[in-house]
Amino acid sequence: MTLPETMRVVEITKPGAPDVLQSAEANVPHPRYGEVLIKLAYAGVNRPDALQRAGLYDPPKGASPLPGLEGAGTVAALGEGVSGLSVGDEVCALLPGGGYAEYVRTAAAHCLPVPKGLSMAQAAALPETFFTVYSNVIMRGGLQAGERFLVHGGSSGIGTTAIQLAKTLGARVFTTAGSDDKCVACKSLGAEQAINYREADFVEIIKQEGGANLILDMVGGDYLPRNVRALADDGRLVQIAFLQSPKVELNFAQLMVRRLTITGSTLRPQSDLAKARIADALREHVWPLIGSGAIAPVMDSEFALEDAAKAHAHMESSTHIGKIVLKVA
């Protein structure tokens, strides 16, 4: 495959609102040892992109300064030491950054095949959310069949993924969302109860069910002590983001008396090896479920690469249900 010297990208011109995202031109990167170069068809849009745009989430050392943590396309070049992939293979991939571009490089071990029956747009919506949900709900949170699972933000990309995955595992799924329409969407995906947090207290509802064995939260702030109250004895809380403050007053005596576990993680700073292990687990346990149609990404909308600012504004309006993607090619 003949590669151009330059490519279209969307860059962050300065920290700020969505309009700081501007189209530009950059050199096509070259894959390093263990990496592949992907000619992207679509790129996913995620909350960490908005945090990076706002100057609140610096890319890790050595990563592209361009936003974009997932995408799907065709392998365009192989770095040294890569096996199991060939030029022309269709893949979706977790990216360290650089997804708002025509070409991106990433570790070969972080690539997964485009599942059977999915479009490139759908495939681009998989990696960031599925890596995050599987590693935190299954690997870290240890969700088991029959357990009561509460995920906040059920209509988000993370939420729609977590609902489906937990349901296929045989868990009882509960979620919160900010409108009746979003609650209906969550229930259609397998949630037993979808709680409109503007109208009802999720703590009291979950406690009536016996408490949550596992909670996945990305809100933080005053949700932290409320989550603790909503947990069953021996329950686990996994924190993956903070839409509100990461700082809160918490009575840790409850953790001791009720044997609670509070943990959490963020995906981007983890080692390449850790991400490769998650990819291996997804390939074995989750990709067959996607291929069979048991799980599917929930798609909200598509924007042109040059309209990334509009995509961010739409995401930050919190009116979307599911994933937003950028059409690159």
Automatic annotation (TrEMBL):
Pfam families: ADH_N, ADH_zinc_N. GO terms for molecular function: NADPH binding; oxidoreductase activity, acting on NAD(P)H. Signal peptide: none annotated. InterPro entries: ADH-like_C, ADH-like_N, ER, GroES-like_sf, NAD(P)-bd_dom_sf, Quinone_OxRdtase_PIG3. The keyword Oxidoreductase applies. Coiled coil: none annotated. SUPFAM superfamilies: GroES-like, NAD(P)-binding Rossmann-fold domains. The keyword Oxidoreductase applies. Keywords: NADP, Oxidoreductase. Residues 16-326 form the Enoyl reductase (ER) domain. PANTHER family: OS02G0805600 PROTEIN, QUINONE OXIDOREDUCTASE PIG3-RELATED. This is Putative NAD(P)H quinone oxidoreductase, PIG3 family. It comes from Litoreibacter janthinus. The lineage of its organism: Bacteria, Pseudomonadati, Pseudomonadota, Alphaproteobacteria, Rhodobacterales.
